[in-house]
Amino acid sequence: MRFGRHHHANPLALVKPLKIQERELSWLTSEQITELLQVIRDRCDNPHVEIITLICLATGARWSEAEKLKPTGLRNAVITFRAEGAFCADYGRAGSQDPPTLEKHGQPNSAITSFRRALAKMTVQLPKGQAAQGLWHTFASHFIQNGGNIVTLQRILGHSSLAMTMRYAHLAPDHLQEAVRLGPAIKYQNQT
């Protein structure tokens, strides 16, 4: 039947909806970031892993975006990933004086396997399948914990809906105080 009414019972009526369990968000603390960078410097077999890691941590870029970045994408401490967007990275806050030098590295080859091996050498372990995504969560978590705006984070991460970004909202140090401060002023008088 092409158009019209269907006169039979719903064939999917007895199918239970799938429960999709959202994966735990894992991110690195400042101390763990320091440990990761040290492990990468000391024991990593791919020279591109450190710069890709630094770019991901500083900008919230996905591993593949940072890995495909060309030297022309970094000018005057501004990293441009696509024509319509740019991110100004504050490298001094991250502990280094200068932005990473893409010119000395050239175009990186696939470095994710080397990054995973470096992660395996750390004292802390991210959940399986969250190696590079852990850097993304690390950026987002620190951004919110340091007072970043959730809508700005949505734009940086490229989320199509704010609902996706809201999973980081509970990390805001003053998220409840902010709700009270910005909500309507209500005067209550005790009726005794």
Automatic annotation (TrEMBL):
**Matching InterPro entries:** DNA_brk_join_enz (IPR011010), Integrase-like_cat_sf (IPR013762), Integrase_catalytic (IPR002104), Tyrosine_recombinase_XerCD (IPR050090)
Enumerate the Pfam families for this protein.
Phage_integrase
Superkingdom of origin: Bacteria
What are the UniProt keywords, alphabetically?
DNA integration, DNA recombination
Start and end residues of each Tyr recombinase domain: 23-181
Signal peptide positions on this chain: none
Protein name in UniProt? Phage integrase family protein
The organism named in the record is: Pseudomonas cuatrocienegasensis
